[in-house]
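Bench notes, bay 3.
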Amino acid sequence: MARPGFVLEVDDRTPPLIVHNGEGFLLERFPLGTRVVYPPEALPPVRDVEEAIQNALLNPIESEPLPELLRAGMRLTIAFDDISLPLPPMKKPDIRQRIIEAVLELAAQAGVDDVELISANALHRRLTPNELRDIVGERVFRSFFPDGKLYNFDAEDADNLTHLGQTRHGEDVEISKRAAESDLLVYVNVNLVAMDGGHKSTSIGLASYKSLKHHHNSHTMIHSRSFMDHKASKMHHSAWRMGEVLTEHVKVFQIETTLNNDLFSGGLGFLQKREWEWSLKDQASMLAAKRGLAAAPSKLRHKIYTDVRSPYQLTGINAGKIEPVHDKTLEMVHAQHLVEVQGQSDVGIIGVPYLSPYNVNSVMNPILAAVMGMGYHFNSYRGNPIVRKDGALILYHPVPYEFSQLHHPSYVDFFEEVLSESTDPATIEAKFEKQYAEDPWYIHLYRTSYAYHGVHPFYMWYWISHALDHCGDIVWVGANRKTVERMGFRSASTLQDALEMVSHSVGRSPSITYLHNPPHLIADVR
């Protein structure tokens, strides 16, 4: 039986604790009384993955079995989550590969020969052929990619978009034409955290800017409390309304999977454990990794981390109608991630790791570091943030001035031009978004190269708007001073310095909560 997560109160016997810090980690001693929220241990996996897949397809929730939905002469489209999930990437075979192969086998038995597979990347960058192959597997890749039947969704291809209508709130629903005109759309999802899945899969992953701007905006984001609770997230409310319109026009068979918390293995296996439970081998691995990463050239250190593949195991799979399937999914996600926390603190502390959904096989630029800390980890709560209103947030990451011109060209201009004029999300949206969203060069790079859409850095900045609104002080420990100042934040050399800097608003003896993740957790703050 996996042990649940728990809250540790730091005392004089507590050893130094791991804090993720970009492409490395620190050992930090926290002030006495600090609450440390530990994630639950990995849940036990399903015993037979192939059997679980077949059971989900043949015994779906509130839907006919998949074989009954398949027939000769039909148009079948299979869409799947892109490389933004899971994080880190999983060891082969990817669970999406195993599901897609099972769906294709049933389709072949039914005589279906009009099949296309789409990476549901919305305004994310296109996946390379090798990245597509890593997800769907060699056999599927060879069967579909050479003929153009396996491809990335293009949100700027006007000829291949279909406007399905508007929601009751006037939100446009415009998605992939192929998906919209299919007799059946099968969506294959990886639900790593509670934010994923549900109507978000189809109505966001296969949508154009015309649709996405209705919920990826500063007003909606600031009122999404939090992204990990779709019932309290205005972004999810919009996606659900769009999903209602979408499913009026398109038959969707949703397949959702959940994974356990088994992120690190081998030489990084000690990151899965609580520090006082480290064996001598774990301690040796930790010291070797810490010293090796600190001494390694930046390119080697980056390669070490980007080569990490997680040994996740499947904890559940459900298929059928979107809403009841997602309800089952959330039960499993909450069983894996929820940790009960009593009350808020004056100060929240978060270590920002090396990886975000938007720098897979790339670099973590300053904006992505900010969104990982203040967008994703800050929002890893249900009920209330771990920090009280107008409290302080302290983050760890070096935040170097580093950008990928291949993957994030508009991020460079956003950082230099937009943030130099304002850091207020609403002001930025009103003054600059349209220009970047419609810029022909950014659109060209998105469509023909491997660049995120020109508007994407705006979405990332809106993603942190809840934290910006909620927190009175935000300080980065060990960060490049110039990069964090451009984003409107301050930098401290040490945790002690950071606590001193925020003492004017939280006092000299504040209550402190440290989120000890990854592995992933959701603080259920009551």
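Next record in the batch:
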Amino acid sequence: MQLYVDEFMKRNSQFRYRFIQKTKILVFLLLGTFAFSQTKISGSVVDAVNGKPLSGVEIFINNKEKPELLTTSSNFTIVSDSGITTATFIKKNYKTEVLNFSNARFENLSLKMQPENVAQIQEVVLSGINKKKFKNKKDNPAYAIMQEVWKRKRTNGLANYNDYQFKEYEKIEIGLNNIDSAFMQKKIFNQLEFVFDYADSANYDKKLTLPVFFNETIFKTYGKNTPEKRENKLIIANKFSGFSNNELIAATAKNQFKDVNIYDNTLNFFNIGFPSPAGTDGFSNYEYELADSLSVNGTECFLIKYLPKRKEMLAFQGSLYISKDTYNIVKSTQKSTNKINVNFVNGIYMELEYDTSNDEVFLPKKTYTELEMSIFNKKKDSKGVLFKRTDIYSDYLFNQNFSDSFLMPKDQTLSDENLTKTDEFWEKERVEPLEEDEKKVYTMVNQLESVPKFKRIVKTVEILQSGYINAWKAIDFGDVFSVYGHNDVEGDRIRVGARTYFSPNDLWRIEGYSAYGFKDKKWKYGAEARYMFNRESRSTIGFGSRNDVMQLGAQLTNDDGIMTRSFASSSVFSSGSNISLSSVKQNNLFFSFEPIKNFQVRMDASTQQIKSANPAQFNLDFYKNGMLKSEVNDFHTTFSLMAQPGAKYSQYGVDRYAFTTLSPTFVLKFTHGFENVLNGDFDYNKLQFLYAQPIILGNFGRTNLNFEAGKNFNTVPLALQNIIPGNQSYSLVSNTFALLKYYEFVADAYTTLHFEHHFQGKILSYLPLIKKLKLREVIFWRGAYGTLSDASKNINFENQKYSAPDQQIYYEYGFGLENIGFGNLKILRVDFNWRGNYLDRPDVSKFGVKFGLQMNF
């Protein structure tokens, strides 16, 4: 999230970035396909003790939910077109057996199943795997076990020591999923046929995939709990599969995965809350069944299977492996249902393994996650992208009293040269060896990068992602998404621009644009140069200048940045005429740095000349020393503090992308205007504060909050005043008031609150017919209160025209429907807005409809 950006462009840039990042991964679908081969397994099942043939054995292939075969004799034969890599054999009163075929023979197998004396809880006989209904949850034997789990709810054991350290090995793979032989025949794959030699079937549903990206990283984490909690995660080594833009791809892939604690009541995937099967409210969301008893890594465990109570819920199905002795969760599996209502996501699968050092804590041991994603539809065989991540934690050490120097953060990126290690290093440091198909990914991607056709495909994706066309590996032309605009003053507007661009991590950048309005027949321009001279602290200096038509008052907490696109030229369709535009000449010099991570200090010095761009219909005239003036000359400095704890970024250059997280945003600004310095007309002080945060409310959805407050301590004219932001377009624009006109409310002092809650379809999923549409409901409330002094009114020529919402809190409310579209491409949202008060004003809108595109999961 960029803090000081025009609100409209902030939405557009985030939308475009999220969309293109997903498209960039999915474009690998164009690289190839693989014809599914038929696989056959056969053999017999006998009792391991007496050799007696066994019938009634359920055989599950590739971890599917339903058995592929229920044997009627000891012999079995299963044929699959999609490949078989595992088979699970289950029979009541026998230990579950799992066969892995990746390095074994397939036919004429002889399987011996071990009999087992299954323990009972409260003398209740264990049921089989078929789901059994209970009138009361207390009658369910699984409930007794889960109660013991809740009583002994574990916490991460790292908090129990003065200091700790551990090693983390991570590998991430991206592969194309469900590509068939017909797709392979398309002309686009000419010269790329070799990639099909690398297909495998390693994901949890055992669908054949084509790996196209692989990344390995080794981390070392150091932490201390006393005298205060501090932790530092260092990158020790990193290995890419070879793409020229691999750092951005790796960072994008990493951001799709969240850290999960199975003991939490809510699990976060894609910043959406899913109820945890091990949470204390689990029986409100899931059906549980005590299915079996088995050994996991030498620990005797109860096996509890669970399913969501309703298929339409955002919930999981899977298994909990719970120690019989200590009732800790040794292992868990979570798999999304086939009807998962998350955009671009067809499936989620996760396995968690824990070590338990005592009866109160756990330590993460291994996490394996798969995310199956597709742009257009949710069919099980739809073509898409498969993200796979494995994390293995090892080498735990406690109370070593290490030096505080290990806790000093380092500004590291995955592409740093010192992180490149030899093959011998990786052979030694990998916690588990690579599979053969994983080793081949490095070779395949290096081959791909030498193919001109593949380079052209990547080039096209990069243009869509950035909006710029690169030339000579030095200059970007664009932004192509800002070429056309329209407003009532300029009419149709054309804008062209360029910037320097040698790499995503450039430490300096020069950019500029020129624009022409066909109605006012005037040229506009903007240019800015920035240089980051210290990468560790992100110390940056910049200077810019522009002369353009702008919509002032489109947001409260704005900045003095030069290159942001004006809201005046961003809205093609307006709900009513917009004549209140300003002509602004601006020069800005700034310096910023981050003394600590995600905490930025910024200082600006700016000069402005502001006048009406439409004097016949919009008046900015004001009085100074008894004289009427039409243009404000302003010189001011701004001191800003900006914090985003927990924010994540993809690069370290002067420009960087912020990934979507649940991190809060805090902004505190102090602005001082100087009279008679650089022709400044007014001496004034302004203080502003902003707080914004998305909050997951369990499985009830996500709330977005935005609170702003500010005060002008001196009298200033309308051009420098606080404007409660309206929205006279049909588009959704964050943190504006949908039914306010521009300049309808002006305030010396103000507070605003925007509340928006996304239910993620929880309510509509109960409606029999509507639930099939998978729409999601949104409710919102917006309020503003402010005051405007008589002096601030009287300084303006039209002194009776402007007022503040000081009689009562102005408010709007309404609801929206999102997730409108088809398949997985459901990005349309429609809002229905009602104005709550101040209805007696002339030409007010009491009701309005806004719509827009949003790239949310």
